[in-house]
């Protein structure tokens, strides 16, 4: 079963003016089939910790392990391509690619044939409620909720077992935000995906199986 484990993780960075201890001694194991919410004030280390879990950065101290293998021993580009999807508040869709092409893109990186990639992409778009009428549209022709659905569909085509979402409802109205969280919860509970969401929104965290709070770079079970 998929798991993502932080072992005594700390992360420190320096700028011209100061040394910042963004993450301090986090020790926690995340398991498949669960929906986790990480809450806390701005600047408490939530997004930095999510970046460490995604393999975008390596801990200064300690380790992040995906299914028992430390991320600093893995090809982290392959890790994100094949196993860990990251969904951003800003959607990060390619503006000059159609909806279908955006979702096909991860499959193109895997050298999947165009015909097969299109078939899989259409299945996943349908699964997030976007039918044929959306396939030829550009991201600029979609609402924020529709763009986030495309981002989720793109994260699913590669068979990712982990979804990390950074404020995925931050740019959405209440109705669309609720729909996106419903979708992420279903993915965790029905498809056994490990879902971790960083959020400021108590409506989002209330839907989680486990709420983790961050303060001054430290993680604790339970809301602040």
Q: What class would the helix/strand composition place it in?
A: alpha/beta
Low-confidence segments, ≥5 residues, pLDDT <50?
Answer: none
Q: Work out the helicity level.
A: 25-40%
User: Could you report the average pLDDT, rounded to the nearest whole number?
Assistant: 91
Number of E-type strands: 10
The largest sheet, given as strand count, sense and whether it forms a barrel, is: 6 strands, mixed
Residues in β-strands, percent: 25-35%
Through-space gap between termini: 30 Å
Explain this structure to me?
The chain is α/β, with parallel strands linked by helices and 224 residues long. Helices cover 34% and strands 28% of the residues. The protein is built from seven helices and ten strands. α5 (144-157) runs parallel beside α6 (174-191). It starts with a strand and ends with a strand.
Task: List the SSEs and their pairings.
Layout: E1 3-14, E2 19-31, E3 35-39, H1 46-54, E4 61-66, E5 69-70, H2 76-82, E6 84-88, H3 99-109, H4 114-127, H5 144-157, E7 162-166, H6 174-191, E8 194-198, H7 202-205, E9 210-215, E10 218-221
Helix pairs in contact: 3-4, 3-5, 4-5, 5-6
């Amino acid at each position: 079963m998929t798991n993502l484990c932080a072992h005594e993780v700390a992360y420190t960075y320096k700028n011209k003016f100061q040394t910042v201890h963004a993450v301090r001694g986090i020790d926690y194991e995340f398991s498949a089939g669960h929906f986790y919410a990480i809450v806390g004030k701005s600047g408490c280390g939530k997004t930095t910790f999510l970046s460490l879990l995604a393999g975008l950065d390596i801990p200064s101290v300690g380790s992040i392990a995906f299914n028992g293998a430390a991320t600093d021993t893995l090809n982290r580009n392959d890790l994100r391509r094949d196993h860990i999807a990251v969904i951003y508040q800003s959607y990060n869709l390619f503006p000059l690619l159609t909806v279908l092409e955006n979702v096909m893109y991860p499959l193109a990186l895997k050298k999947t044939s165009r015909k097969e990639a299109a078939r899989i992409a259409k299945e996943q778009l349908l699964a997030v409620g976007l039918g044929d009428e959306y396939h030829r549209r550009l991201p600029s022709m979609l609402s924020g909720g529709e763009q986030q659905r495309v981002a989720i569909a793109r994260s699913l085509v590669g068979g990712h077992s982990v979804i990390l979402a950074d404020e995925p409802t931050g740019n959405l109205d209440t109705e669309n935000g609720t729909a996106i969280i419903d979708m992420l919860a279903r993915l965790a509970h029905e498809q056994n995906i490990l879902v971790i969401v960083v959020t400021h929104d108590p409506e989002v965290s209330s839907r989680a199986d486990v709420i983790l709070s961050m303060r001054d770079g430290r993680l604790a079970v339970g809301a602040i």
